[in-house]
Amino acid sequence: MQIRNITAAASIALCGVAANAATATSGALVGSFIALAQGSNETGGYVGSGAGIPNVRTEPVGAMGNWLAASPGNPATVSFGVGTTAVGFEWGTPSNYDSLVVNEENASGVVTSTTFSYSNFGLTNFGPDGYVTVTASTHDTIVSLVFKSGQPAFEAANFTAVAVPEPTNVALLLAGVGMLGFMARKRSV
Fold this sequence. Notes:
By secondary structure, the chain is an alpha+beta fold. The chain is built from 3 helices and 14 strands. The chain has one domain: Jelly Rolls (Sandwich). 17% of the residues lie in helices and 39% in strands. A hairpin with a 3-residue loop joins strand 5 and strand 6 (57-58).
């Protein structure tokens, strides 16, 4: 798996887009692995395992479990849980006919979209595969990624996500830490 720095390319992709928009960079896994299963958190496209069909859709290098392929006229959408702030995936065989739409939601429930395409990155040597991390704008969360392909397919695998903890979980964590501090202090007295 080749990892390329596409931070500058993400800046190119965002030209003309609102200043508060998602960004895409290269990098390692960003969170918990998401196992794809047809219909559970994915709609459209193809979800499968194994080598695929040469010249139609092929498994990304290093795919763990099922992988996703969007084809012409058949985009694929992967949805994420509440509070997702970053998503990563293995982009198999990046091509100039692939595009990725990142849908983000703000605190008021307004959804905005940012589109990235391979040509926006300005790279001709991205390699056969590369790991991409998409990060939400400040105070926004990623609700879905839409994979589109002009021909023959946009393949992706090894999806990961990072979510902001819910306020109740943070409160429970703080209460637990407070209790540990109280017990430690009581023992030292």
